[in-house]
Amino acid sequence: MNSPFTLKHRVVFITGANRGIGKAIAETLLNYGVEKVYLAVRDLSTVADLETRFIDRVTPIFLDLNEPNSIFAAAANAQDVDLVINNAGILNGSNPLAMSAIDSLQHEFDINVFGLVRMAQAFAPLLKQNGGGAFVQLNSIASLRSVPEFATYAASKAAAYSLTQAIRHELSKQKTVVLSVHPGPVATDMAKSIGLVDAEPATVVAEAIINALEVGEPHVFPDSKAQQLWAEYESFARNVIETI
């Protein structure tokens, strides 16, 4: 288990905060009572509505997970951060036998895997400097179960989950809490693009993150589809993964 991490009056940094799960997390945390949110996006104009609604409590900041310099520059300009939520990711999704598979895999690994490593490297020193804090990684149920049409995406998320486990072990030495989040089908633009319907709202992910941090959970499977998988996986996670 993790140590409980309270969210009131915290300073939060969220990647991909302009839509989908990232935007839902930002809105939910601001309504919950965090002090400030850095909205890390590639296009600052895409968070103008959040700036208008949460005047003086949000700070747009440029970040592209495919540009390492932008990650370290963002960290240098967010020295007061307590909580990092690495939400940004991409889904190309290719069958492993398709001619597009290698290109898809390379692109998804650049963002979903190498981006995670760069985020951890850039922000771990800040979190340590500020007392430990917390690092939240958005993984997926695809990190545990693959299907042919999304094989490259699932491979990238499996790699990200493996790295999250190692990052949790390393950051525990500086008293930084690490939470791995595994949503199933959630109503986002990404979900619509691959034909998912009847998905649960992105707010379920935001609310589950709050609860998991405050009770000290290292994993969270937020929606009903994800919870079905958690029912089968929990014993292994508790007895093998979380003991590290």
Question: Can you walk through the features of this model?
Answer:
- Helix content is 47%, strand content 15%.
- It has 244 residues and is an alpha/beta fold.
- The chain has a single domain, classed as Rossmann fold (3-Layer(aba) Sandwich), CATH 3.40.50.720.
- The strands form 2 sheets. Strands 3-2-1-4-5-6-9 form a 7-stranded parallel sheet, with helices on both faces.
- Helix 1 packs across helix 7 and helix 3 packs parallel to helix 4.
- The protein starts with 10 loop residues before the first strand and ends with a helix.
- The mean pLDDT is 94.
- Helix-strand sequence: EHEHEHEHEHEEHEHEH
Secondary structure: helix percent: 40-55%
Show unreliable segments: none
Q: End-to-end distance, in Å?
A: 10 Å
Can you count the beta strands? 9
Biggest sheet: strand arrangement: 3-2-1-4-5-6-9
The CATH architecture category equals: 3-Layer(aba) Sandwich
CATH topology name: Rossmann fold
Average predicted confidence as pLDDT: 94
Number of helices: 8
The CATH superfamily name is NAD(P)-binding Rossmann-like Domain
Strand content: 5-15%
Identify the CATH class.
Alpha Beta
Overall structural class, as computed from helix and strand content, comes to alpha/beta
Number of domains: 1
The Cα radius of gyration reads 17 Å
Largest sheet: 7 strands, parallel
Shape: globular
InterPro entries: KR_dom, NAD(P)-bd_dom_sf, Sc_DH/Rdtase_CS, SDR_fam
Keywords: Oxidoreductase
Domain Ketoreductase: 10-189
Family: Belongs to the short-chain dehydrogenases/reductases (SDR) family.
